[in-house]
Here is the input.
Amino acid sequence: MRDRLIEQLFSLLTSADRAEAIAGDLAEEREHRGWAWFWLHALGVTLELWRRAVMCAPLRVLALTVAACALLIAPVFGGAVAAFLFPQMIAAWWLLGSAGALFTAISLAAVARRLGFAASATLAIVGVLLVLACLIVMPAVAAAQQAEWKDPSPHKTSLVTVEDGVQLEVLDWGSGPAVVLLAGLGATAHQYDDLAPALTARYRVVGLTRRDHRGSSAAPGGYGFARLADDVLRIIDAVGVNNPIVIGHSFAGEEMHVLGARHSAKIRGLVYIDAAFDRGDDADSEAYGAVARTVPVAPGPQPGDLASFTALRVYLEKHGGAWPEAYMRTRFRTNPDGSVGGLWSPDVSIRQAMTKEIQAAYKPYNPERIRVPALAIYAVPKSADDLMRRGSSDRSAFPELVARAADDPAIRERVEKLYLLTRDRVQKHERWFEAFAERGRVVELSGTHDLIISNPSEVVQQIEAFVSSLPERP
Amino acid sequence: MAAPVNLGEFEQLILLAILRLRDDAYGVTIRAELADRAGRTVAPGALYTALDRLETKGLIASRMSDPTPQRGGRAKRHVTVTAAGREALTRARTAYERLLDGLDLLGGAHA
Here is the structure.
């Protein structure tokens, strides 16, 4: 079999009887020289024959060389491309790519010997078309198979102009007293898709997506907190919500500080969802980080968890809570086969401008004191067990760690230490907020930074209690 | 033959080996003869292209033997030196000897 293969290989480069004789000679000498010698010299003979054939019949050898390269490279290349673009279909791609390349190679080799260059070229084109079919037709099929997905949250979507050329996405649910929802940095209004319906029975809920975030315009700047707060005011005026309660997550705290300080007449109250932090004080970061690094973290999503948005939601459910699919589709890119791609982000120039403006706004950090009623909800574990089971502002939930800590006193001790540091840290921010917001109140919930998904019903409950505590305005 | 063919040293060695082997000259035996007599280890690839070249120049002729049960039933390609081959060898040797004439290489080496 191997001799036959070698003979075939030689016969591509020289006459059939020469190939037979050479293969026979090598087989004969293999008897006392061994297989290593045989393969080494089979290769040597091939190269010599090839060299000689190039000089005698350059076109034929060119065709053969292209065929050999196609045979060797195409499956590897095709496989790599497929693995990169369509991780779910590697096997199918590899098979098709290999089949195309094999067809090209065999056709070229067979025809080059008998029909000459023109026919070889024709078959080469056929082979290339086969490979192209793999690269072009298959993704189209995959995309067609991917059922069209629709956002199930019952909101109206519109775009509102806040500045020349800058339009922001606005989601609008329900009717009644107004609530405006602000997303965290990098996030869109869709992060409230699941929470908003719980509020719409009592309130008119409007969510908005900050500039330079997916769904809204990419603006070349405007990341000063005052400008961002102006964007919110424009939306409030444009959609006609009167005297709203503004609720924001994480980075939205910065816009809310400005609204509560400078535009208190237009705002009824503020609810900070893990969003009120003294960003100027990071004195404890080093000590906290030193301990935090010693406590194991929950494993990140595996490739299987990224196979689809549904799969990613299942994974997230196990680790503290899952975002609405509509939100994840704005946060991550979708691969053509429906799997979850990388994080979406605006163009580099915009990203850099954003970062620069935000950093400048944080140094020094001295927001004006807010004058409207405010509720600051913080994510704080109530015990070391809570820290593991439910996560904290800085960590995702890792329930499996509870058993490990029970078996390993060293881990337990580190978690206890981290818990105390976490509490101290949050309490420091709470004291800062109470001093900063003259009509502010603090509430703690045991969950992750993303309280919207880790503690949705408690968040809704807190919002309702806060709103009902507000004095009626004329 | 229109123009006289000049032989390289390697080609001369191969032709001589073929002549010595008489009726049994083919790839394996030629390489063995070169190794035994001339102390030259020749890679198979180099030998086959040299044989091809010699045949193209008309210095050797080849014929396929009947298949043998050894070698997986593959036939051998036996080669013989043609008249032109012998003539080229003679001419090379004559030229060599004329150039040697008057030189005492061995003696010089021992002087």
About this structure: Chain A has a mean pLDDT of 85.
